[in-house]
Design goal:
This protein has 234 residues and is mostly helical. It contains 12 helices and no strands.
């Protein structure tokens, strides 16, 4: 039993070292991309992707979808995004969802778009969360649901996504998917404004006209104390 435990420990260490080595190589590839050394980047990314590195697969998909260093090929891009997405890479999942939305490189499918975006959004991919909020708001590929709309906007808003914050404020101001709460609405518009989303100003002014001075003061206090729950994932 002890020998078995030692063997597992050795294998774990070996796999960890291999992963670190792959990540280091990938960092080198990304540095090459930043310098527009596309051939050098591809020479690193392609073997890593073929070896099953999910991050490399995602980045190889990006090269094909953008036509960077390779001929633009949406079908090839989708293949690599799917391989990465199947391993749980949230950025690949979101990007694959977008391809299903547009029908680029894959058969267009609103249902598959939602499926992959949900997997990404559940992991914290903020653009997936924002997109899901809009999908549930309009009923695109899903049954329209104010509850789901507010849930996804809330998750993205908590990460610091200003557009989601403004949309969530609208939900609070109207009482859609959440109880009507002008303090919460004003708070989220205040936070969005501080993050540079000027589109929140008109709505905030409108809701302020039906609030008391103490409610506005409370909302501003809550906004000042707010901090994102996690680093914004793009």
């Amino acid at each position: 039993m002890r020998k078995l435990i030692l063997l597992v420990a050795v294998l774990t260490l070996a796999l960890s070292a291999c992963s670190r080595n792959s990540d280091k190589k990938l960092d080198g590839a990304l540095a090459a991309l930043a310098k527009k050394d596309y051939a050098g980047a591809l020479a690193i990314i392609q073997p890593l992707a073929k070896d099953g590195n999910a991050k490399a697969q995602y980045n190889l998909g990006k090269l094909y979808i953008d036509g960077t260093g390779v001929a633009k090929d949406a079908t090839e891009a989708a293949k690599w995004f799917r391989l990465s997405a199947d391993q749980g890479n949230m950025d690949a999942q979101f990007t694959l969802g977008k391809l299903y939305d547009s029908g680029e490189g894959v058969a267009k499918s609103a249902e598959d778009a939602v499926k992959w975006m949900k997997l990404a959004g559940t992991q914290g991919q903020v653009e997936a969360q924002f997109t899901l909020g809009n999908k549930y708001l309009t009923g695109q590929g899903v049954a329209q649901s104010d509850d789901e709309t507010s849930k996804w906007f809330q998750q993205a808003a908590e990460q610091g996504h200003a557009n989601s914050q403004s949309n969530l404020a609208v939900m609070y101001a109207m009482g859609r998917g959440v109880p009507r709460n002008d303090v919460e609405a004003y708070k989220w518009w205040e936070i969005a404004l501080k993050l540079g989303y000027e589109g929140a100003k008109g709505n905030q002014d409108a809701v302020a006209r039906r609030m008391t001075e103490s409610q506005i003061a409370e909302a501003k206090k809550l906004a000042a104390a707010w901090k994102p729950k996690a680093e914004l994932k793009k």
